[in-house]
Structure of 9920_t:CDS:1:
Amino acid sequence: MRSKTSFRLDKDKIRAKIEQELKGKDSLVNINFPAEDLRDIGVRQAIHDAFKAERIGDSLFIKCDVNNRDLRSDVGVWFQQPSHDERFRPIIHPCPPPNVWIKVCFNNAKDRNYMLNKINWLQQNTTGIEFVAIIIPSGIIPSNPNPQISTTHATIEQTRPTRAPYICHSHWDANNYENWYKMDWNQHITLRCGLMIDFNIVLTELSY
């Protein structure tokens, strides 16, 4: 059993490293630790209490700017469901990143660019994630004129649509290319992993 002195030394060492890395920074900071440094749940709890951090593997991601949003998705899809502790205490119990990362924002330049920049950053610093960005209007859209018909696959747009709602699907391959789609009633897209996003489900929420 570890002594309190040993635990305190580990915690103080990690905290000192984090504080040193954060000096003069005003953005997202990635700090890598050897696996053994984070093995103790008490150390992870102390980090969780002291810093607004997110964890992927042996890396801690800490936001230095109070205006910087976190890296969590609005909707995450895991092919293997994380445990209760991994989902609700992801720093203390390391939660794997989702296989599908879905984020929603309004169709204004500030929100849209922030979200897309976040996706670009994650693509450069993670692997095996499929990204979906859903851009919605600020107002209500008309209801479905033909709710009885089956959905068909949406057609890729040559450029990003200007009028919301629309959706961007980005693969995790070496090119990280983006596919843009207008979100019309009775259409869907199929992700690379095989999951289908039915536009009617999203559009129904926007038509109330």
Remarks:
- Confidence is low (pLDDT under 50) at residues 65-69.
- DSSP finds five helices and eleven strands in the chain.
- The longest helix spans residues 4-22.
